Every structure is written in structure tokens, then in C-alpha cells.
Amino acid sequence: MPLIRAFRGLRPAPGRAEDVLAPPYDVLSTEEARERARDRPWSFLHISKPEIDLPPQTDPYRDAVYAKAAENLRRMIEAGVLVRDPEPRLYVYRLRMGGHVQTGIVAVASVSEYERNRIRKHEFTRPVKEDDRVRQIEAVNAQTGPVLLAHPDHAGVERALDEWTRAHAPVVDVEADDGVQHSLWVIDEPEVIRRLEAAFDAMPALYIADGHHRSAAAARVAARRRAQSQTGGAAEASHEYFLSVIFPARQMRILDYNRVVRDLNGMDPERFLARVRERFEVVPSEGPVRPDRPATFGMYVDGRWYRLRLRPEHIPADDPVRRLDVSLLQENLLAPVLGIGDPRTDERIDFVGGIRGLEALERRVDSGEMAVAFSLYPTRMADLMAVADAGEVMPPKSTWFEPKLADGLVSHVLD
Q1: Sheet harboring 280-285: ordered strands across?
Q2: Quick check: 301 and 371 in contact, CB under 8 A?
Q3: Is residue 157 classed as helix, strand or coil in its secondary structure?
Q4: pLDDT the model gives residue 317
């Protein structure tokens, strides 16, 4: 099966993208989504967070929530707010956030190649979140949230997308309320589509950057539909592919994913600093510390910033997971000094995306809610790909990708 292919995208009708586009479903709480969708009847949040149209305190996993998503999708199609392309297309998607620009392709990616690990993972998934995405796909009979993928450098693909965007006008060019510009072009020339599909098919692998639950859910839906088919399911059936946005790995932007801890594990600040010095060089700083290299960390405690540098003998050279900065901090400070054994389950630790700035770390500590904060150097795409190539799993909260994709820009209907 081809690694990717064109599909008949369901997308906003001309002039309706600004009404439709919404943040990803998993970056907003229900209350935040309800506020964002207020007086916006065509916001895609009515599909991706349909509990906002039900009574407050509704369990988001109730059957009625998924039924509401299907009802809202039908309503938007019947009203002509969303329309489906008559023939399979590929789409160019460009994100612009300040001076950062990334240009990729919207396509559907092969479930079989995902199952063979040619589309590579780097995270565990949680059953409850997988179940949620399976029920959403089955209810609306579509994949409405794209999986964010990265591809290895390929000058031919980048050149083809650049040439297309120079020669054609975008069908969507919208600035979201967070200042991110979302632009979309439709590729409708069969020969260009064929060349792009062939270029991707020659790639050794694609890498999931964000969307492990969505891709796992798509694979479960495909397996279920194969089992329900007397013939085992057609290889080209729409459920054998999942909605994806694929960018060159070198263009993708990972921000720091920082940590805050509720207490000092029974120590006062002086004793805590002494324990940290056992493995780190500790230098006081006059201002916030944003690490500029691996194995260096900022630490804010007792109203003051420090720059930490892990001593070289504690940095493994040949382990793609243990050499990650999130692992170095966990194994050399969070676990042995602060007693954070499992950051997935320990309620004493919380995580703060770098988009919120270092001031957010100071606020959490100065308020008394937390006792210490750590700023990290961002995980690099090369490290993510090395972990995936090794078949390993990254620690939780290792990556924070910005800018975020928009929901509602293109959806994949299952025929």
C-alpha cells in the first residue's frame, strides 16, 4: 500500500474558514472551549468538543456527546458550511507564527504502514484516550483531527510545494486569535499528486510528532472494519488511511516542556541545593534561565534562579532515551533528590509548556502552589527520530510543538 495518498477532503466552503477553524480538541478544557465557541455556531469545537452543547458537568465520554458531534457535523454539511472535494486531492498547509514558517502536506497515511512501524511512534498511549478517539471516529464516520507527522529531508517535496504555492492562490488564509496564520492550497493536478505520492513512498519512514492516540484509534477502527467485512476489507478502503499533516522534520519547532514540583521532599532550600550540587554545577543567576544547550537546566527556588549543568560523567552517550534532557533531569534530580519516581502518576509534579514563558514558572512557585521549577532545553527532532528508530518510548511530556494545527481545516470522511 502507498505510504500516503490523496483523498476527498471535507473543508470549509469559500469564505467560511474563519468561522470554522478551531484549536485542537486536546489543548482546551471544556469550559475554555465553551467560551471560545460562544456566538460562533460554525466553530469546529461543536464537533471536536461537543459536550459544550450539552448541560454543564456532562461527562465528555457519554454516548450523547458523540451523538452530538455527529449531529453537529451533519448540520454543518447540510448548511453548506463544510463541503467535500469531488475528487481526491492533496493539500499544502503553511503555518506562520511570528518569524517561524513551516510548509507541509495534508494527506492520508497508511494504517498498514503504521502497523509495520514504517510510520514510527515514540509514546505510549492511554486506553481511555484511545477509546475516546475510536468512539469519535465511529460516531461521525470521519477523522476530524489530523495526526502531526514529520518526514526526513526531501528537497524534491519541498520544491514541489514551494512551486505550487507560488503559482496558485490559497483557498484559506486566516489568522487565528493566537496570531498564527493558517494557509491552505488545494493540489488538483493528477501528475503533481502522482509525483508527490511517489516521493513519499520512497521515504524510509515517517515519524509521529503529535497524535499517537488519533493514529492508534484509526488503526483500531480499521481492524474492526476489516473484521466486519466478509472479504477482509479492501486495501484501498478509506478506513485503511488516517488524516495526517506532514512537515519536513527540519522545519518543525519544538519548545521546552518545563517542570514544577510541589515540595522539596522534606528539605529546606539550603539542604536541597546541597543535594543538587552532588551531580550538577550550580551557578546563581540574576534573571530567568533559558537553557541554550543540552544537559543544562534553569532552576527557580526560594525566589532565585540558578543555572544547572549536569556533570559529563552522568550523561550516557549511547542511549537515545536516557540522554534526553527530560531523562537527565528525571534520573539525576527529580527521582533521587525530590523522590518523583513516576512522573506519569506522581501528583507532586506538573508540566508547563514553553509557550507560556518562564514567567509562568515563577508565578507557580511565588504563589506557594509549587516549591521549585525547572526550565529545560527543548528536545530536538533528531533525538525524537532516534528514539523512534530504536523502537523506544520517550518519557512523558518530552515535546511541545508550536505552532499547533487547526481543527476543521480538512477532515477525512470514511466512505
Answers
A1: 280-285, 304-310, 296-301, 372-376, 257-261, 349-353
A2: yes
A3: helix
A4: 86
> Which parts of the chain sit beneath pLDDT 70?
230-234
Q: Are 379 and 371 in contact (CB under 8 A)?
A: no
| 200 residue type, one letter | F
| pLDDT, position 27 | 86
Three-state secondary-structure class, residue 170: coil
**Grid-cell match 501528475, residue found:** 191
Which three cell numbers mark 172?
484559506
Among 210, 288, 238, CA closest to 107: 238
Cell, residue 61: 465520554
Question: Residue 403: is the preceding peptide bond cis (ω within 30°)?
Answer: yes
How deeply is 170 buried, as exposed, middle or buried, from its count of CB atoms within 10 A (0-12, 13-18, 19+)?
middle
Q: Determine the CATH number of domain 257-377.
A: 3.30.1760
Could you give the maximum distance between any two Cα atoms of the chain, in Å?
70
Q: How confident is the model at residue 232, as a pLDDT?
A: 53
Residue 348 in contact with residue 262, Cβ under 8 Å? yes
Which cell numbers in the block locate residue 174? 486566516
Strand partners, 143: 412
pLDDT of residue 141: 98
Q: Give per-residue pLDDT as tens, 232-244.
A: 556 789 999 999 9
Hey, is 329 helix, strand or coil?
A: helix
What residue type is 202 in one-letter code?
A: A
Do the Cβ atoms of 373 and 349 come closer than 8 Å? no
* CA distance readout (Å), 140 to 43, 45, 67, 117: 16, 14, 8, 27
Query: What are the residue boundaries of the structural domains of the chain, listed by start?
Result: 4-252+403-413, 257-377
> By three-state DSSP, how is residue 376 classified?
strand
Nearest to 165 by CA among 182, 187, 148, 181: 187
pTM of the predicted model as reported, rounded to 2 decimal places: 0.92
What are the cell numbers at 278? Answer: 552532588
